[in-house]
Amino acid sequence: MSRKLAFASLLAAAAAQGAGNQQTETHPKMTWKRCSAPGSCTTVNGEVVIDANWRWLHLDGGTDNCYDGNEWTGCSSESECTSSCVLEGADYTKTYGAKTSGDALSLQFVTKHEYGTNIGSRLYLMASQSKYQMFTLMGNEFTFDVELSTLDCGLNGALYFVMMDADGGTSRYSSNTAGAKYGTGYCDAQCARDLKFVGGKANVEGWKPSDNDANAGVGPMGGCCPEMDVWESNSHSSAVTPHPCETVEYHVCETTNCGGTYSDDRFAGGCDANGCDFNPYRMGVQDFYGAGKTVDTSKEFTVVTQFSEGLIYQFFVQDGVKIDMPNTTVQGVEGNKINEEFCKNQFAAFDDRDRFNEVGGWSKMNEALRGEWVLVMSLWDDHYANMLWLDSSYPPEKASQPGGDRGDCPQDSGVPSDVESQHASATVTYSNIRFGPIGSTVEV
Fold first, then answer.
1. Total count of domains within the chain
2. pLDDT at site 126
3. Given pLDDT bands bounded at 50, 70 and 90, which one contains residue 11?
4. Is 300 one of the annotated active-site residues of the chain?
5. Per-residue confidence (pLDDT) for residue 16, from 0 to 100
6. CATH code (residue 374)
7. How is 162-230 classified by DSSP, letter by letter?
8. Residue 16 resides in a domain
9. Which range marks the domain in which residue 238 is found?
10. Residue closest to 385 by CA, chosen among 376, 374, 396, 375
11. Which of 311, 336, 334 is nearest to 323 (CA)?
């Protein structure tokens, strides 16, 4: 009896989303500043980690792939893949085009390496080797500098927060032993189903390879949580967007209950996949953001975002000058801040479904802002809608209608194959991150 129990215990220990030993995982170092008042900031020594979805996934004890291209290859069931497959360490610069220098992180869009080609990346700020840096947004402001002059139509340099677990899910799911050190535990308001692992389990049973993305697919499970898009942008358009969820923490959905980008019914899940966005171009001010405009995207600038009860406000600093977000010119919508009145009026003016309030609105968003968030820094293209929802007219039939025009990019732009071939060297740099009470991170 005792020998059987011991054997069963060994099996349980082996059944885990673990880490391999082919390459040592060494996180690039990156500093940031914690502020208490203008001009009073302390440097924090941090590091960054790339998301587990980008990593080489292979059979434990060897080098055979568990996942190749956009298909699972080395295993076939949830239990087998969870217990047999391990995540490998990363060569950040050579493989993923990600590098740090002091307080700056640069992400290159396409990177060719000895094993193939990497497209885009998603990284997280770390507090230690095994824990993500956690931020409580309510009552605080988050500030960073950005250089995105090479990000053309169809690209998205996104800096945002999601309510991931600090340890990447190891405490919540015993089957996840790789944890934050290997970038596990991603979630967002789209209830991401393109993840190879969700809730510590392999997302393999029912996985469908993408028909237009050689590296991606969609599985039955999705990782869901509130999302605060501080910055989704390229050199043509930008948007700041809160996304509340009914459940204010990491949670798992399955198939028809997920909603979001990866489901037939976008509104089926418990999160607001669309959010309540402030995109200056969409709000009627077309000469505000872009190359040579008020916020000139041909050169570096600073983005400041403030979070208070029921209110999100963003402004910019460039060449030492504060630039307020412009007031909307859309009929029936007023102001330059995101609050309850703005969201309610925007949905009505644009004839959009108010999913924001259906999932709890500001009550749920405020609850989330009082919680803890992980900082995400990424660069990506869009195989579902060509990024038209950020920088062009979307949906296409709403061109020239209220809320339909979101940027000056053509409707035939953003096709991933074109973007990847024409703008492979595009790079975004996030730097000089500062965080502290409202009014503490900038002097203007």
1. 1
2. 98
3. very low
4. no
5. 76
6. 2.70.100.10
7. E---TTTTTTT-TTB-S-GGGT----BTT-B---SEETTEE--TT-EE-SS-TT-EE-SEEEE--EEEE
8. no
9. 27-55+91-437
10. 396
11. 336
Kindly state whether residue 70 falls inside one of the protein's structural domains. no
Termini Cα distance of the chain: 73
Query: In sequence order, what DSSP letters do the residues of 264-316 get, joined into one string?
Result: SSTTSSSB-SS---B-TTTTT-TTSEETTSSEETTS-EEEEEEEETTEEEEEE
Residue 177 φ/ψ region, left for φ over 0, alpha for ψ in the -120 to 50 degree band, beta for the rest: alpha
Of 382, 379, 356, 365, nearest in space to 427 by CA: 379
* Length of the chain, in residues: 444
Asked if residue 317 belongs to a domain, the reply is: yes
Residue 3 is assigned to a structural domain of this protein: no
* Contact (CB, 8 A) for 245 and 274: no
The residue written with tokens 């999601």 in the block is: 162
Number of other residues whose CB lies within 10 A of the CB of residue 125: 22
246 is catalytic: no
Which pLDDT band, with edges at 50, 70 and 90, does 90 fall under?
Answer: very high
pLDDT tens for residues 225-255?
Answer: 999 999 999 999 999 999 999 999 999 999 9
Considering 232, 246, 300, 341, which one is annotated as catalytic?
232
Q: Read off the pLDDT of residues 119-172 as tens digits, 9 standing for 90 and up.
A: 999 999 999 999 999 999 999 999 999 999 999 999 999 999 999 999 999 999
Q: Which residue in the list 78, 141, 227, 420 is annotated as catalytic?
A: 227
The pTM is what?
0.95
